[in-house]
Amino acid sequence: MADSNTEQNQDIDFPLEGVKVLDLSRVFAGPLCGMVLADFGAEVVKVEHPGRGDDTRDWGMRIGKTETTYYNSMNRNKRSITLDLQTPEGVKILHELLPQFDVLIHNFKTGGAEKLGLGYEQLKAIKPDLIYCAVAGYDSSGPEAKRPGYDLVIQGEAGLMALNGDANMPPLKFGVAVVDLVTGMYAAQAVLAALFRRERTGKGRLIEMALYDSGITVTGYYGLDALQLGHDPERYGNAHPSIVPYGMYEAADGPLIIAVGNNSQFDKFCRQVVLRPDIVEDQRFSTNVNRAKNRLELLPMLKELIGSFPRDLLLERLTAAGIPCGRVAGLHEALTSDRTRRSGLLRDMPHPVAGTTPVFAPPYRLDGQRLPIRHAPPTLGEGTREVLQRLLTLDDAQLQDLQAKGVLTLPPEPSCSTP
Fold it and tell me: Which domain covers residue 382, as residue numbers?
């Protein structure tokens, strides 16, 4: 982890500086979209229920009183305000905030936003050039429009679980919520495209993202293979369906990745790495097409050979031969590695209860510099007072009255130290 948390924000030219986003979404896909925009410099105000906040404040390992590891992974660089959007007062405040914002993100069930007075046509009447991004499970115009969307369900329905894992295994989900992850990225791309268009035309846009659509899209070349074949393609687990050898292998003392990408590399692999030139000289294995065709004969031989060498020796020989390779690390090992530390991918951020908490840094580098963490993932409602006073000039008495009605919650007043 980086030794210092000092961020040189003044040196960064944030592409979305000045853009304001209302993030009404919860859980993963919508919050990820909002976080991407926040990473690029947008002011993102996360609107949460006064009592429970985002569902993920109760998922994962607890950090402080209102945050968890799950929540923190999707909400850096945002401010949090609380509003009960089931109350007329909460919706009224959101309507009053809206003219100052450029983008609104939500993941209500289809029809839910309209019932609250927060549908696209309703908000477009207040803010004609609004970019409105709605994330749902399924096509809003189809018969399943009102079904709730859950990553695991859609991994199953979209065929993703059927392509994951080894051939002798039952369908297997991905280790992370891949459908949510991809949908959030696609949603951010769509918002950026809409912002670009609005700069040229002055027009807003309705963006609709369906988890199922993203799940089908992410099947990629496997999906097209299935259509060509007329049935599911074979599953190869950690191996590649058409390149051999290409996958995870067990050395004498641990796993490694070997990715032989062409015939020249295979020649070097046989002669310089496993010291068996006779293998590449065998016509059954001399080309990748033949190796893939005869993989059942080749792979057991290679696995035995690879298993006879120490991992570090193999990695040294593979690197010298110019063959892509790498250790298979445990998750904690990868996160605490020198590679991760040098890259600045993690920061220790101040936390009012835990003291500090690790937070992922944005993956983007612009002009050679990684974008910084401007705000740690916010405690529930930490920005309610400051944001509403700044944007709506509500005074303390008005805020206290709204809190008494259950419309919002206020963070504790900042303590004043005595000199």
Answer: 20-219+338-405
Q: Say which amino acid occupies 329.
A: A
Radius of gyration of the chain (CA): 26
Q: Which residue has 């690879």 as its token pair?
A: 306
Q: List Cα–Cα distances, 183 to 221, 237, 277, in angstroms.
A: 18, 24, 47
Quick check: 419 pLDDT over 70?
Answer: no
In this prediction, residue 11 carries a pLDDT of 75
| Mean pLDDT, the chain, integer | 94
What is the average pLDDT across 130-140? 97
Task: State whether 41 and 165 are in the same domain.
Answer: yes
**C-alpha closest to that of 21 among 4, 40, 8, 5:** 40
pTM: 0.92
Q: Is the pLDDT of residue 110 over 50?
A: yes
Q: Does the pLDDT of residue 415 top 80, yes or no?
A: no
Tens-place pLDDT, residues 29-71: 999 999 999 999 999 999 999 999 999 999 999 999 999 999 9
Band (2; pLDDT cuts 50, 70, 90):
very low
Which CATH number do you get for residue 172? 3.40.50.10540
Residue 400 lies in a domain: yes
Q: Which residues form the catalytic set?
A: 180
Asked if 172 and 314 sit in the same domain, the reply is no
